[in-house]
Specification:
The structure is a homodimer. By secondary structure, chain A is an alpha/beta fold. Helices cover 41% and strands 12% of the residues of chain A. In chain A, helix 1 packs across helix 2. The longest helix of chain A has 17 residues. The radius of gyration of chain A is 22 Å and the shape is globular. Chains A, B: This is Recombination protein RecR.
């Protein structure tokens, strides 16, 4: 790691703090701190304020758990969306990715992560019971699981599936397969195997 | 550019502000904002404070112009350093780079940039007159120019050289040549040409 003695404790503290951000090493942190020094003080104050206001004043949708300005988020409160179709995702980023496709008209349920005994994350740390409750209240006809593949995601999907069984709701999962434009030759065998097992009728 | 409609104005503002930092695109800015949301509020407050305190409370050495905690920086006030040898650099980053070599025992003079008519930076925007004044006061035997190569750096070096002529101080420039471990084959012709012209006696 690139680490230098800096001539000012203020600068050292700023570099150390900026360096805690994901993907920012010491070198970039120093570059950013020096950049901030050259900016008008109002701009730096705006950045500083935006960061702390985000953390202190953020709210979460009481229905789906997504970041929201109001008690109920813009997606849950949109009457044009199909509230009987609930897609379960790990995080807001997944919501944004699915929204960016423009292919989904249902609503979401943000878990806040996946079950991970190694990281000490159990079912009670995630919004699973609120999902079961939400489905139990009725009005939901299908739950689409869109969690990551891998042991933790699969475990979480299975756990949710078991929890939802008593409600009788239809539980589906997003399709896994060879991506558009991907070469079969370079696709890993698990994905390719799954795409053969999950083959569907050809509709030209 | 990757740009998404975000479900919260607070988040949108934070992402926009973080995205102003050098080398941070919208995607990384979003990743950082979501990371901050998951951190304890004290950590986020510490980051926010460190940034604004740096900008508001930073001081500059009254002798060399480097960032400093006190009126005179740690290098200028170090009696073990040779105060008669002054190395002229563009920025604090160059000071840090030279300090990291452990090969320099003199002091510095931080210009704050180079003369650049395109960016509207003239000699009066840089700490050139304070350098001439500093040398004029006596006690300086050699000024080492360590500015970047290229038209702007060369122009600035020449301008400083001319300004210092009346003081009679010895003006030198750092050596340019083929880097250690570099292949001649892949060295640009200007550097290679300079390294031949500036050849020195071989001392095994």
């Amino acid at each position: 790691m690139y680490k230098q003695k800096l001539p000012s404790a203020l600068l050292e503290d700023a570099v150390a703090q900026i360096g805690m951000l994901p993907g920012i090493g010491n070198r970039s942190a120093l570059r950013m701190a020096l950049y901030l020094l050259r900016q008008p003080v109002e701009n730096v104050r705006h950045l500083s304020d935006a960061i702390i206001r985000l953390r202190e004043n953020v709210r979460y949708c009481s229905v789906c758990g997504m970041i929201s300005e109001n008690d109920i988020c813009s997606i849950c409160s949109d009457s044009r969306r199909n509230a009987s179709l609930v897609c379960v995702v790990e995080s807001l980023r997944d919501v944004l990715s699915i929204e960016a496709t423009g292919q989904y008209n249902g609503v979401y349920h943000v878990l806040g992560g996946v079950i991970s005994p190694i990281d000490g994350i159990g079912p009670s740390d995630l919004s699973i019971s609120s999902l079961v409750e939400r489905v139990g209240k009725g009005g939901v006809s299908e739950v689409v699981l869109a969690l990551s593949t891998g042991v933790e995601g699969e475990t979480t999907s299975y756990y949710i599936y078991r929890q939802l069984q008593s409600t009788g709701v239809k539980v589906t999962a997003i399709a896994r397969g060879v991506g558009f434009g991907d070469e079969l030759e370079y696709t890993d065998e698990v994905t390719l195997g799954r795409s053969i097992a999950d083959r569907r009728e050809f509709r030209p």
